[in-house]
Amino acid sequence: MAAVAEPSNGEVLLKMAAAGICGSDLHYYQDGGFGPVRVREPIIPGHEGSGYITALGAGVSGLAIGDLVAVNPSQPCGTCRFCREHLPIHCQTMRFMGSAMRLPHEQGMFRDWLIVPAMQCVPAGRLITAGEAACAEPLAVCLHAVAQAGSLDGKSVLVTGAGPIGTLVTAAARHAGAASVVVTDLADAALQRVTAMGATETINVRHTPEKLTVYEKDKGQFDVVFECSAAEPALRSAIATVRPRGLIVQVGVTGDITLPLNAIVGKELRLIGSQRFDTEFAVALELIATRRIDVRPIISHRFPIDEAVQAFVQAGDRSAACKVQLSFLP
Q1: What is the pLDDT of residues 35-80, one digit of tens each?
Q2: Beta strand spans in 186-269 (E)
Q3: Contact assessment for residue 88 and residue 74, using Cβ atoms and an 8 Å cutoff
Q4: Residue 254: its pLDDT value, please?
Q5: How many CA atoms lie within 13 A of 165 on its CB side?
Q6: How far apart are CA 321 and CA 163, in angstroms?
Q7: How much is the pTM?
Q8: Would you identify the CATH topology of the domain 142-273?
Q9: What is d(CA 10, CA 151) in angstroms, rounded to the nearest whole number?
Q10: Residue 212 CA: distances (Å) to CA of 191, 203, 228, 280, 310
Q11: Which part of the chain has CATH 3.90.180.10?
């Protein structure tokens, strides 16, 4: 403990407890980056984390030593054009923990100790585990995506991709009032997990693609599609199965793909993107802390930090893994 720095004014020192491996972390490990974002210097990844407060800097209030908190990895500047327009997600100098987007890279949460501004820490209460609290970041991403769609009350929804994000989008959509949520994926294990998170129907499009084709009838059946796989065939299926003037929210990210523009124009579709989150982080943690959204089914594996390599290998196996987390406690 003697080698750990003390928090400065407005900061807290955390003993990290749990942190999830995100798709971007996996891309850094496997490929050295994704798209134009490349690792160009040593980086500590990790932006889905929770920890226990062990020291408070001067001027910190509302937090106490021993509190379990989830850490919001976003650090908008608060002064640029978009921050002034109340669009901090699009901050021109956004600092996002564990990101290689900028130089120097922003260091992340895969570490035993972390000093962080207190304003980025949201108390998790005492009813949930550290692993559950660490799911606040991915759930916040999904709540933001669902908010992009407006009211989902009574609507029919398709979610393409049943990874951690697709699974949490399913839970968020059901929480928002969707009458039905059909989820597609290529892996049976992923589809089994998403059923526990509120899916009303699952379709393995590798083995039974005809079950999704049924929804193309009469120009499409779904009111809203959340595309979470970043696979071109999935987006084409979304365009084919959403109703005229329906909405597709693109959540998954990838490189350049081709789109059937005639279908988008002919059906007068709306295709919008969704990235990250803002105020949804605190909302996500509250939903998790009260278990109004129970994230436990998505946590498929836990590894101690000294088995991080095994954890990353496991996270790369989608046939068995959903959310793989690292543990920093004995």
Answers
A1: 788 999 999 999 999 999 999 999 999 999 999 999 999 999 999 9
A2: 201-204, 222-227, 242-250
A3: yes
A4: 82
A5: 26
A6: 9
A7: 0.94
A8: Rossmann fold (3.40.50)
A9: 38
A10: 14, 7, 16, 31, 36
A11: 11-135+295-327
